[in-house]
Design a protein that fits this description.
heterodimer; A: about 280 residues; alpha+beta; Immunoglobulin-like; 2 domains; 5-stranded mixed sheet; 10 strands; about 20% strand; elongated; B: about 625 residues; mainly alpha; Cytochrome C Oxidase, Chain A; two-stranded antiparallel sheet; 4 strands; globular
Chain lengths: ~280, ~625
């Protein structure tokens, strides 16, 4: 029985570890430097986790194999423990675990503590149940005024844009986010109704969109293409369908898109969505 | 002669009426069994829901004719619709966390064995104890009724996950299906549950502090008692916060307050305050709900698993035929986990919009809690080192607990880091992590406890052969279910999705999704072996003596099952620590706690305290 249990524990351990390290199922390719740094931190952590997990399970299997009851009438070792061992393993695990926590903060800090660089491309993101709305400032680079009391979904004014504001004249809204490659992007995240979450796996970060708050995040994409955007916070019945795309465009193509008037903007977006394929997974 | 008179005076006979004896019983043993029965019923409901969810995820759009009959609203034409799926998610989580993981380990086994293990005749407040069970049962009935009240014709329960994030949960009907009467009942059920748990916690703490028998010093208590005690303290301090939060949420829904609803919301085409169906709200904070919920929710994780840790330590030592390694360190580790458990709730909220500085603090504290958890693991391995292991079914499950606790707990090193939580949050990685550690490991602790204490509770042994088959399939099964979920999370699969068909990046995971579902269904079916074993053994099991496992603690000094007053009127006196196995020179390889000290022990002072080394 003891040997069978030991072997099963070892097989399960091997299976679990290899499921990670065959990399058949892994992160999609990162498209920001932040994401690449995060991947490095993940790799370090998962190696520590893998080693600790394997050591503990192999040790458990070893105990179970070696110390099964013998027919001979001998007794177990009579001991109540060892203070020296307790001190050693407490200190060693404390150093490793807290060390990891401290190491993990640098990527976090770079995302949250630095303001978006001047000249960042700004997009206002307004989520609502099962739909994404992206508000672009247009040619002048200034967002028109918005007000919740002006929101009218039936008139397609999803974000409550004040048409009388001169700054709003060239503003565009669309359900797809289009950003330039190689230029810092700042998102201003809002929600009209319940909590949603902005999740593009290639960016390696999630951020809730909380009603009543405007949360800012920034990043710089380094790879053009079309990426799937998902909602990752339960927002109601059709949560699983709250899907859109993030287009990362060459700077010139993006600039040209942003200076188009409203009608042409819409049709150009449709063309671009067809032009860029999804990454192959 | 005088001794006999003494006994006669102090014996307490059980009430004779059936209702007072088995239904509205004041006997902690009967109440413990009532709690266990509640958990056994609740877990079937919870498991059935998980099977429905797996069916829907693996074979979306399939027509299951039986579902059309059972749930005409949730599965019209036999196809599970998204809102029904989400209400299954909500109900599965709520029922499992509250009515299984909180009832069986603490209310069930704690109630039954804490008084006996400390040598008391009953709990300190028997009436309070009875009330705590019946209040909890009312909570369970209310949560079940939530399935059938949605405010519309279809039978759809609340939608919110077990966390019920506001403002989705606060807005009412206007926020879509699953936000009507079902959500009110969900909140009311949890509030009732909080009250029941508070009554129980008060009782546990008082009993343990005041009613220990002569010689039962704190450091001679079995580790199970330390675990139940700490759990009770956690419950006492955390449930009131959830109760308060639940009441505020209900007020937001029914009385027009705005604790969690900010101003200017525009929901389902209506601006707040412009229509009677959506009254004006202003000034609330959605994040406040998350703070209140997780201030309870994180300690709740430890409420679920600490009793399993206690049972595992107890059972490992018994069948290793060896004292617990590092008893004192184990006690400190339980305390450290309990204390730190109150300062880490923010790690559920890294992506919530909370201050990033708070997140860093929570992150460091969170990884610190891994230290006492690792210390416990090392000590379990230490207990097995140099042992003479008897591979009984309870021992297999206790060893399984250690393996699963490591497997589930260690990924906390990933999730507890601020930066690594960013991609992992709300994916299947999280799902895998907490199911393994809080769900499966805790349940393994309870399986071990059931096989271990069944002979004491019913006077008969459970079938070892059935128990072992149950162990092997379940142990391999849970690894095969939950380990693949980690890599699903790596790829980015979000949780609480009714279908994965919308996203191209998820399609390559489909073989894994199907694999997990198939194993899950097999593993769930295997659990009926356990149910069969329970029922069969009550009537047909091999008769058990007072101490069938050659164990040392007080519950094994009395008859199986114990008399109404536990020790037939004579309270035991304790002379030594709880895990005196393999004592050199002793006639047997175990020395019971009630064994008086020998002359040499009194002189040499060696080992009689159980933790002197």
């Amino acid at each position: 029985m003891g040997r069978a249990l030991a072997v099963i524990i070892w097989i399960l351990t091997l299976g679990s570890v290899s499921l990670f390290f065959v990399k058949q199922w892994w992160f999609p390719t990162a498209i920001t430097s932040h994401a690449a740094a995060l991947d490095r931190q993940f790799l370090i952590t998962i190696i520590v986790v893998g080693i600790s997990f394997t050591a503990a399970q192999v040790g458990l299997g070893y105990m179970v194999w070696k110390y099964r009851e013998r027919p001979a009438n001998d007794r177990a070792v009579y001991t109540h423990g060892s203070n020296r061992l307790e001190v050693i393993w407490t200190i060693v695990t404390a150093i490793i675990f807290i060390g990891l926590a401290v190491m993990g903060q640098s990527v976090w800090a770079s995302l949250h503590f630095n303001k978006a660089p001047a000249g960042s491309f700004q997009v206002e993101v307004v989520a609502q149940q099962f739909q994404w709305n992206f508000h672009y400032a247009g040619k002048d680079g200034v967002f028109g005024r918005t007000d919740p009391s002006l929101i009218d979904d039936s008139a397609l004014n999803f974000i409550g844009l004040d048409e009388t504001d001169p700054n709003a004249k060239d503003d565009e809204t669309h359900s797809v986010i289009a950003i330039p490659v190689g230029r810092p992007v700042e998102l201003i995240l809002r929600s009209k109704d319940v909590i949603h979450n902005f999740w593009v796996p290639q960016l390696r970060f999630k951020q809730d969109l909380v009603p009543g708050m405007a949360i800012r995040v920034h990043f710089t994409a380094n790879q053009t293409g079309k990426y799937e955007l998902a909602c990752a916070e339960l927002c109601g019945q059709l949560h699983f369908k709250m899907k859109s795309y993030m287009l990362v465009l060459p700077e010139a193509e993006h600039q040209a898109l942003m200076s188009l008037p409203q009608e042409q903007f819409q049709s150009r977006m449709t063309e671009l969505l067809a032009k860029y394929p999804l990454p192959t997974y | 002669m005088s001794v006999e008179t003494h006994e006669a005076v102090h014996r307490h006979e059980p009430p004779t009426s059936f209702i007072r004896k088995y239904i509205f019983s004041l006997d902690h043993k009967v109440i413990g069994i009532q709690y266990i029965l509640l958990a056994l019923v609740a877990v079937i409901v919870g498991m059935a829901m998980s099977v429905l969810m797996r069916m829907n995820l693996s074979w979306p759009g399939t027509n299951w004719p039986i579902l059309a009959t059972l749930f005409p609203g949730g599965a019209p034409g036999g196809v599970i619709n998204p809102e029904f799926y989400l209400s299954l998610v909500t109900m599965h989580g709520t029922i499992m966390v509250f009515f299984v993981l909180t009832t069986a380990p603490q209310g069930g086994f704690g109630n039954y064995f804490l008084p006996i293990q400390i040598g008391a005749e009953d709990m300190a407040f028997p009436v309070l104890n009875m009330l705590s069970f019946w209040v909890t049962l009312v909570g369970f009935i209310v949560i079940l009724s939530a399935i059938f009240f949605s405010g519309s014709a279809s039978t759809i329960g609340p939608i919110g996950g077990w966390t019920g994030y506001a403002p989705l949960s606060a807005l009412g009907q206007i926020a879509g299906p699953g936000q009507g009467m079902g959500m009110n009942l969900w909140i009311i059920s949890i509030a009732i549950f909080c009250v029941g748990s508070l009554l129980g916690a008060l009782n546990f703490i008082t009993t343990l502090l005041n009613m220990r028998t002569r010689g039962m010093s704190l450091m001679r208590m079995p580790l199970t008692c330390w675990a139940w005690f700490t759990t009770a303290v956690l419950a006492l301090l955390s449930f009131p916060v959830l109760l308060g939060g639940g009441i505020l949420l209900l007020l937001d829904r029914l009385a027009g307050t705005s604790f969690f609803i900010p101003g200017g919301l525009y929901v389902s085409g209506i601006l707040s305050g412009t229509n009677p169906s959506f009254p004006v709200h202003t000034g609330g904070s959605p994040i406040l709900w998350q703070h209140l919920f997780w201030f309870f929710g994180h300690p709740e994780v430890y409420i679920a698993i600490l009793p399993g840790m206690g049972a595992t330590s107890h059972i490992l030592s018994t069948f290793a035929r060896k004292p617990v390694f590092g008893y004192r360190a184990m006690v400190f580790a339980i305390f450290a986990i309990g204390l730190l458990g109150f300062f880490v709730w923010g790690h559920h909220m890294f992506i919530s919009g909370m201050s990033p500085y708070s997140a860093m603090t929570f992150s460091i504290l969170t990884l610190s809690i891994g230290v006492p958890s690792a210390v416990k693991t090392f000590n379990w391995l230490g207990t097995l080192w140099g042992a003479r292991i008897r591979f009984t079914t309870p021992m297999l499950f206790a060893i399984g607990f250690v393996s699963l606790f490591v497997a589930g707990g260690i990924t906390g090193l990933v999730l507890g880091q601020t930066s690594l939580d960013l991609p992992m949050h709300d994916t299947y990685f999280v799902l895998a992590h907490f199911h393994l550690v809080m769900g499966v490991a805790s349940i393994f602790g309870m399986f071990a406890a059931t096989y271990f204490w069944f002979p004491k509770m019913f006077g008969r042994m459970m079938s070892e052969s059935l128990g072992k088959i149950h162990f092997w399939i379940t142990f391999v099964g849970v690894y095969c279910i939950f380990v693949p979920m980690h890599v699903m999370g790596l790829v980015g699969m979000p949780r609480r999705y009714a279908q994965f068909t919308e996203y191209t990046f998820l399609t390559r995971l489909h073989p894994l999704v199907v694999f997990v579902s198939v194993v899950a269904i097999i593993t769930v079916l295997t659990q009926f072996l356990f149910y069969f074993n329970l029922i069969w053994s009550i009537f047909k099991g091999k008769k058990a003596g007072a101490n069938p496992w050659d164990a040392t603690t007080l519950e094994w000094t009395t008859a199986s099952p114990p008399p109404h007053d536990n020790f037939a009127g004579v309270l035991p006196v304790v002379y030594r620590g709880p895990y005196e196995f393999a004592v050199p020179g002793a006639p047997n390889d175990f020395v019971m706690q009630t064994e008086p000290e020998t002359e040499t022990e009194r002189v040499g002072g060696n080992g009689h305290n159980g933790h002197r080394h």
